[in-house]
Amino acid sequence: MTDEATPFGGGRIEMMGEALLGLPSGGLWWEREATLIVADLHFEKASSFARRGSLLPPYDTSATLDRLESDVAALSPARVISLGDAFHDPFAVERLAEAAWARIERLQAARDWIWIDGNHDAAAATAPGGTRAETLAVGPLVFRHEPTKGAIGEIAGHLHPAARVKVASGTVRRRCFAGDGDRLILPAYGSLAGGLDVASRAFDGLFARRRLQVHLLGAGRVHTMPAEAVVGFGLSRDGTTRRRANR
Amino acid sequence: MTADAAPPPLLPPRFAAWLGERGWSLRPHQERLLEAGRERRSALLVAPTGAGKTLAGFLPSLVDLAERASGARTVAARRGVKRRGVHTLYVSPLKALAVDVARNVERPIAEMGLSIRIETRTGDTSAHKRQRQKIDPPDILMTTPEQVALLLGSREAETLFGDLDTVIFDELHALVTSKRGDLLALDLARLRRLSPRLRAVGLSATVADPNELAAWLAPQTPDAPRAEADLVIAPPGTPAIVEILEAETRIPWSGHLARHALPAVLEAIAQARTTIVFVNTRAQAELVFQELWAANDRGLRIALHHGSLDVAQRRRVEAAMAAGGGESGLDAVVATSTLDLGIDWGDVDLVIHVGAPKGASRLAQRIGRSNHRLDEPSRALLVPANRFEVLECLAAREANAEGTQDTPPIRAGALDVLAQHVLGRAVASPFDADDFFVEVTSALPYRALPRSTFDRVVDFVATGGYALRVYERYAKIRKTKDGLWRVANPQVAQQWRLNVGTIVEMPMVKVRLVSGDKGRIARFGGRLLGEMEEYFFETLTPGDTFLFGGEVLRFVGMRETEALVARAAGRDPRIPSYWGGKFPLSTHLAERVRGLLADPTRWAGLPAQVRDWLELQREHSQLPGRREMMVETFPHGDRFHMVVYAFEGRLAHQTLGMLLTRRMERAGLRPMGFVANDYCLGVWGAIDLGAAFARCRPSIDSLFDEDMLGDDLEAWLDESVMLKRTFRNCAIISGLVERRHPGQEKSGRQATAATDLIFDVLRSHEPDHILLQATRADAGHGLLDVRRLADLLARVKGRIRHVALDRISPLAVPILTEIGREPTPGAAGEAMLAEAADALMREATR
Questions:
Q1: Chain A contact present for B745, CB below 8 A
Q2: CATH tag, B13-233
Q3: What rounded mean pLDDT belongs to chain B?
Q4: CA pair distance A178, B730, nearest whole angstrom
Q5: A127, A230, B460, B473: least surrounded by Cβ within 10 Å?
Q6: Distance from CA of A43 to the nearest CA of B (A)
Q7: Mutation test of the interface with chain B: which of A231, A237, A242, choosing the one with the most B Cβ atoms within 10 A?
Q8: How far apart are alpha carbons B35 and A181 in whole angstroms?
Q9: Which residues fall within 8 angstroms of residue B99, CB to CB, at 6 or more apart?
């Protein structure tokens, strides 16, 4: 854990020589490029469930926008990159309430806005404003939705990382950034988007474990921890368990 | 039963002859139930085990069916097309019990040669048979509450139950105080609508308020006096012989293992034919089982039974139990509440209760599991595991001798259950809201339900009930032009069928053994040992050891939704505090314990070492009064402690601890932590609390003021994991989120995470939503026990006695030994614990 206070309670993450800041909201701030990156907004997830008979509270888009507005107000980014799956399904854009459209448009005013296609929303006909892209390269970093094995300098989303770590009273599970210096995967930013354990098989082969750090989203600050702190990720105490991946 | 009494005229000759052949005659309560049947009145029978309760419940139906069979086949048959429906519906909380009772009722039917068809219907019944039962129903159908709900939602409900004559609820006392009882009450109201001449019969063990149970059986009219069914109370059986084990060795200060007493427990098992050893938690069951085996040098056959073990394993133990103490039988089984109810094992002649009984009625129920003959006493041995439990056991024995009961009252019906029922009602057929409201409020738990709340629940079912009305197009039920509510599409009905029921399992993971002692890990396969709550594994790191199924296992890791484990060497597992405090000490027993403590003239019945302990307390501090609440403050080590003797059970104490430390924080008292058990709460910190109270900064009265239940409670509730867990249950029961079913790939963890997120979004955007209202109502008596805490604060207002001490008091020793400590098994751990406790005692009495 870092001792010195960081701006916005963020967690310092270095990649390809670039200084990045993981925010407690789940957003990533790249100060040198004045760029805010958010992954997996999953707008209209509740209404997507409602179509199938689970009438979840229809406030998720609004709650996600609340946080996004507050990040944008605090940072005044010149560029915002949405790392894909901004909309929960291809028809989510059509279900978006007018007020939500207006809020997104206000956020987009006076800055670059890039929608990277995700697997959920690639088929969406239109998105409000901004530019659509499959991937985006800025300086040494490349932005795409789904992490690809072997890529270097990659910033991705898609997997919704979360980690369970050991604390004095037991364990705590939180959404997190997960990175090894070559690749960084962002937590889901959407208010109803859940998390997937970094120790699960979906993450196999993506990180060099010795260098992996997780940055857990706490209340008002981000907690950085090494891979050994993650439950289900390290060698067991007696050394008999070998992890399948990251050979 | 006497052989020479003449059979009463209530019975047709065939029945009288059958009884006579066996040398039996009707007991008075059986006669009363026959009379009630003849007069078509509902009735509640309260009777001890062995009083012929089942026969009493079924006789009126058997007589009616026998007479009917000789005359016209059915009323319905006259209408030509309509088939004959069920005559008597029997509902049991356990499917095993339904099957067992069916067998017991079939016997007299066969012996009298009656033409009555009796069938069971449970989750295990084949789809083919269930389908056939709907088309060609039996005369008597034996089933569970969930199956009743499903049948009521089926297309055949009206033909099945249109002529229903009698519904019998077995073990009613065990059903009514849960959400299961709420749903069943609503289903009873529905059955009455389908068959207005229906009469209800309840069979129950002794309860605190039998009139309330009798009212549950009767249809209610709002604003009218409460209606009640006939109450028939059978004479109590022979009083039980309850002994408390006198320890020859030192009685521990804390812990729940009673290791010191296990040699005596083994001796008692050896003396008896078959013994059930009851404990309070699964963790305790595992440990007691392991310890008994370790000391079992004469080869007694002892088995283990709890809800986490593989079903096949449990069935094997039950079969061995049924075989009794014979060749293939068992000498004892260590069990949790899984054996509280259920089928009778005739050979059980001793019940041993290890640990605190927690409640008078609960103990009575467990004691009743031994010896089902009315004319012989049940025998029980109570084994207190620590000094406070000695007091509790004594209080429980007194309560048992006096026959006092402390079953909880029936609460207002839960709104999430009502939501499930509303959807089920629409699935059955279109309904009129006004008419349905009358039906719902005829059920006792919903008698005081305001119309506005009912309408909000209907709105919730239809479109989610959100202020932001955006889900009209996804509505599950819609009001059509004729004013009736209908299901929007067949998928909704299917969803409801998959969600029926109010039992929400904790997310479970399978426990798989992947390696032997050599530590080799297989890539696939491995033997399945059973299931455990997922949150238990969330507290473990690989390498941690724990007890399961009587073995010490090492946690290897998670693989998808399975926990992989290996056998561990040694017998000193790290034991986690899982499933602790499931049953908090009942208010009634707590009051008795307080009374016992406050009155030294009654200490004669206590073991000498416990008596000495209380004498020392009287000498060095004071005794907690019967009506007031004593609070001790003292320095100890480098901290300052406060011990609150509240006697309100662990859950309420934990909630009090959370609220109190928040308030102390604000008052600058710098609390550092707290620990709670069933009897008291210990708080420690860096500031001299005694001095602060002496200067009234703050005063002790203001610290314990009831206003802590206002904003502090709200603020804390919102962050509480317990409340999120409660919300998850409400969300599932109400149908907001789908229940997880076996084989679905979505893991329980993901479902939990989802309901957590839903809770946060809902709370911040619509804090008054009906589902949050339901969640808070649950928190009142569930995991947080807020209501009991509220009662305590009101009761002790102005009656708090502060005792400032310069060192720890004898009575405070047990709670202080629990600080920062899980039960530490293994001889070394136990010895260290004793050493620490003894050091504390030396300090206290210096």
A1: no
A2: 3.40.50.300
A3: 85
A4: 34
A5: B473
A6: 13
A7: A231
A8: 83
A9: B120, B122, B142
**HEC per residue, B448-513:** CCCHHHHHHHHHHHHHCCCCCCCCHHHCCEEECCCCCEEECCHHHHHHHHHHCCCCCCCCEEEEEE
pLDDT reported for residue B824 = 28
Task: Count CB neighbours of A16 within 10 A.
Answer: 14
Distance between CA A6 and CA A60 in Å, rounded?
29
What are the residues facing A230 on neighbouring strands?
A165
Residue B532: band (very low, low, confident or very high) from pLDDT cuts 50, 70, 90: confident
User: What pLDDT sits at residue B741?
Assistant: 57
Cβ atoms < 10 Å from Cβ of B349: 20
Q: Is the pLDDT of residue A62 over 70?
A: yes
- Secondary element (H or E) of residue B214: helix B210-217
Neighbours of B151 (CB within 10 A): 24
Nearest CA in chain B to A162: B753
Distance CA A99, CA B817 (A): 58
Q: Phi, psi (5° rounding) for residue A95?
A: -85, -15
- Say if domain B621-705+794-844 classifies as CATH 3.30.70: no
| Phi, psi angle pair for B421, to nearest 5° | -70, -35
Domains of chain A (ranges plus CATH)? 7-229 (3.60.21)
Residues 6+ apart with CB under 8 A from A129: A104, A105, A108, A113
Listed range (B361-375, B550-564, B593-607, B782-796) with the worst mean pLDDT: B550-564
User: What's the rounded Cα separation, in Å, for the pair A58 and A66?
Assistant: 14
What is the per-residue pLDDT for B825?
A: 26
Pairing type for strands A170-179 and A161-167 reads: antiparallel
Residue A150 gets which letter from DSSP?
T
Taking only the tens place, the pLDDT of each residue in B684-718 is 888 899 999 999 889 999 999 988 888 777 777 76
Residues in A touching B769 (Cβ below 8 Å):
57
Instruction: Pick B720 or B367 by higher pLDDT.
Output: B367
Cβ atoms < 10 Å from Cβ of B71: 7
Residue B351 to residue A76: CA distance in whole angstroms:
72
The domain B241-402: what is its CATH number? 3.40.50.300
Strands laid side by side in the B639-645 sheet:
B671-676, B681-685, B639-645, B629-636, B800-804
| Domain ranges within chain B, ordered by starting residue | 13-233, 241-402, 415-499, 509-567, 621-705+794-844, 714-788
C-alpha angle B219/B163/B429, rounded to 5°?
A: 75
Q: So what's the pLDDT on residue B119?
A: 95
Fold of B415-499: Arc Repressor Mutant, subunit A (1.10.10)
**B470 vs A47: CB contact, 8 Å cut-off?**
yes
Lowest mean pLDDT of A157-166, B109-118, B323-332, B808-817, name the range.
B323-332
CA distance B510 to B559: 10
| ipTM reported for the complex, 2 dp | 0.89
CA B337 to chain CA mean position, Å: 8
Interface probe with B: pick from A54, A160, A235, most Cβ of B within 10 Å: A54
**Which residue did the predictor score with more confidence, B751 or B590?**
B590
User: In B699-747, which ranges are continuous DSSP H helix?
Assistant: 700-703, 711-719, 721-733
Instruction: Give yes or no for a contact between A107 and A68, defined as CB atoms under 8 angstroms apart.
Output: yes
CA atoms of B287 and B60, how far apart (whole Å): 47
Domains B415-499 and B621-705+794-844 agree in fold: no
Q: CB B754 to CB A199 under 8 A?
A: no
Contact B156, B83 (CB under 8 A): no
pLDDT of residue B433: 98
What CA–CA distance (Å, rounded) separates B18 from B549? 47
